[in-house]
Amino acid sequence: MLRNGRWIALAAALLLTGCGFHLAGKRPLPPALSSVYIDSVTPYQVSEPPLETALRAGLRRRGAEVAGEIEKAKTIVRLSELKDRREVLSVGPDGKASEYLLVSSVRYEVISGGRALLPPDTLSASRDYSFQPAQVLAKEAEEQRLREFIQGELAELIMLRLEAKLARAGDPAAPADVVPPAP
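The structure assignment produced for this chain is given below.
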């Protein structure tokens, strides 16, 4: 009986592999993303935004070479207008905010060979959290971790959109619905 179970598991694994199934984040990247430069337009920032760090790590994990110079890359992922904001969701009986909504948004586009593989688009993600004035330091640290998580989520969404668009395009070097890059 146990042997039959092993054979069934082996057959299921072979079927999943044969149909192109991959675990999330493990699928090979399209050839257009083999060499990428991340062009992050973030004025007045001292450190690299978590979005850029997460996108760079995701690309490397999937086998892309992330170039340090724009000239050495086949494809450019341009990130701009990265914005974080905090909105009050609810107010307590004392008139102070007791719940906030954190929203991060980014504008991105993907360019290869002077042509836009993905036209400029905007993504946003959000999370809410409760706030207790008695735990200000802990809540500030929680807010920072949530911002990093949200930007990591945005990086994954960009990766998914890249995959979907380039896989549909067939030959990534000459996609059918190319849009000229934004000036």
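Interim note for the steering committee: Confidence is low (pLDDT under 50) at residues 171-183. The first strand starts at residue 35 and ends at 40.
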